[in-house]
Structures are given as structure tokens and as C-alpha cells.
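User: Fold this; C-alpha cells only.

Assistant: Input:
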Amino acid sequence: MADPVFLITGASSGIGAATARAAADAGYRLALAARSVDKLEALAAELGGDERALAIKCDVTEWDDQEAMVATVLDRFGRLDCAFANAGFGAKRGFLNESPEFWRSMVLTNVYGAALTIRATVEALKAVEGHLLLTGSVAGRRALPGSLYSATKWAVTAMGEGARQELNGTGVRVTLIEPGAVDTPFFSNQPKTALVAEDVARAVMYAVSQPPSVDVNEILIRATSQEG
């Protein structure tokens, strides 16, 4: 199929931006979504401008924004083949750290926002037997001390499997991408041993490049020397 369409939330930096570049190289048209559009517009221009890449302002915790995002994609490109629920951020460990307001924003973005992306995109994905992807984490496979972030990623792990079961038989494939530490702006202090965003982007593209009969449900990826 020529020129399929790839939607990425949290596309302005890190894993989202790296995946956008990898998808563009693979021939996808792109819908790039984030709360701030300055970086998005620069990335969209880099990847082909309005004919190939849309910059869409979207707060994933707002249902109206998510609905409008998908409507914009369908209006401009006519289809949606891959949707990557990638928006998210972390918090300091410790249940006495961070403010309750910060926690609320993180939980809404990481969990509720991912669920809204599924809800907003699922009918368009069904129409073309497309691919749903979610950014989980190693932290969603093993509990981390004092980490509410870890709890949000456990929720995403369950969400990915729940979506896979619900969509079984529709032709839509579901992949949970579970990176270990990644050297991106996600971390205030960069980890000593880490993947780079392009490593994760290659895992994403591996999943979406499989034939329709193959559904890669989970990819757990760490730097070779990461301990945890």
C-alpha cells in the first residue's frame, strides 16, 4: 500500500520524534500531535510539510482534542493506518515527592490519555485493519520503589492486552513497546546506561513492518548493560 498514515502523540521530541523520522523514511505520511506546536511544526516541515506531515495541537487528556485530532487526520489524509499512543512523562520516586497536582497530570496523561487515544482512533483503524501501538515501559513489568510512574505503566501494560483482546478478529494489530532507560528529555538526570530514541523507533518500525498475519504484541527493549 502506498503512503499509509502514521499518527503519533507526544511527537515533539524523544521517542515520538525519532519514530516520526523512521516512519517518514519508510514512506508513511505523518500526523504529529503534542500540546505545544512549535517543535511539531519544525519537525513537520523537516518531514515534508503539509503534503506529508501534519502538526496537530492536542492535549491527550482532553477528549475534544483527541476527536479533533483524528478528524483532522481523516479529513486531510483520508485514512489512519497506525496510531501510536506515545504521550507521557515521569515523576520522581517516593510517595512524598512531587506535588499532588503533578501526580494528577501524570496519571491523566499516561493512563487516561492513552485510553482516549485508543477510543479516538479505533474505528479508523478497524476500517483499514491498521495497527495500534502504546508506549509502556520496563517499569510496567516490574514495580519500582516508590514509583507512581511505574503504576501508570502497569496500567498501560494491561491496556495494551485489553485492547488486543477486544480487537481480536478485527484485523487490527496491537503492540506494546516497553523501553528501559532512554536518553531523552524524559529524564532530568540522564542515565549512565541507556538506549537512544532511535533504538526504540526501530522496534516500533519492526512491529509495523510485519505481514498482516503477524501481530507482535510486546517488545521489551533495554540497553545491553542496563541492570534493572
